[in-house]
Design goal:
Blueprint (H helix, E strand, L loop, with lengths): L1 H18 L1 H5 L5 H31 L3 H27 L12 H24 L2 H22 L7 H25 L10 H34 L9 H4 L2
Helix pairs in contact: 1-3, 3-4, 4-5, 4-6, 4-7, 5-6, 7-8
Length: 242
């Protein structure tokens, strides 16, 4: 049974890793973007669910201390990726909201992520796995941003675009980090190496900031052209209609 779950986990992770670049480089909202995006979402959903099952099995049935520590990491990654993917998808359904929203699923999942981030930080500090503590910051920040998004009124007409984009990029960072940590020994690198833990977050975080800044400038320019009677060059009439 566990082997079947493991194979599903690997298959989901492979599908997500192979498909995640396509939505980033294709026209946003186009057929290729949507279809490849759903492949990524499906793959990451499988990864998250199977990771929860695998982490539980390893924690309760594998007596090795390192195995238990890794199972906690796997559990945390499952929560982190699950919340990011869910938030990215559900933000698309919140395009028209003008006030704060209180969907129990989104707020609940973000709250669980925040609690597990705090727990992971505490465990890392108590056990000496300081990398766990540092990595928990990513989840805590993601959870705080999600709660802020759902509990406050939108401050930008394209709020859903930025939430979708940052959530999906966050899940990509988590997926790449998990992949590197799991497979680091195959390359002769320790799973505790700073390179495999920190690099995806640093590179991905910088890339996300630059991308958000780029689209803020582009949307601002499109808004000016809308006032002059031109549609947006980014999303066409869908932006002009807003």
């Amino acid at each position: 049974m566990l082997k079947t779950i493991l194979y599903l986990h690997i298959a989901g992770g492979t599908a997500a890793l192979l498909s995640m670049v396509i939505p980033l480089v294709t026209a946003k909202g186009a057929r290729t973007h949507r279809r490849s995006g759903w492949v990524f979402v499906g793959g990451m959903t499988v990864v998250s669910i199977t990771a929860l099952l695998l982490s539980g099995a390893r924690f309760f049935f594998d007596p090795r201390p390192d195995a238990k520590a890794f199972s906690l990491f796997l559990f945390y990654i499952a929560i982190l990726t699950g919340e990011s993917v869910s938030s990215g998808v559900r933000a698309l359904r919140a395009k028209d909201r003008a006030t704060h929203a209180t969907p129990w699923w989104d707020i609940g999942l973000a709250s669980v992520l925040m609690l597990t981030s705090v727990g992971m930080a505490g465990y890392g500090f108590a056990s000496g796995h300081m990398l766990f503590t540092w990595f928990s910051i990513l989840g805590f920040v993601n959870a705080a941003q999600a709660l802020r998004y759902w509990l406050r009124p939108p401050t930008h007409r394209m709020h859903w675009w930025f939430r979708h984009m940052t959530s999906m990029l966050g899940s990509c960072i988590a997926a790449v980090t998990a992949f590197l940590v799991v497979n680091a020994p195959l390359a002769g690198v320790s799973r505790g190496s700073l390179i495999v833990w920190i690099t995806p977050g640093v590179v991905g975080g910088i890339g996300t900031r630059l991308w958000v800044a780029y689209y803020r400038r582009r949307f601002a320019g499109a808004r000016v052209r809308e006032g002059q009677g031109f549609a947006s060059p980014v999303l066409g009439s869908s932006v002009a209609a807003r």
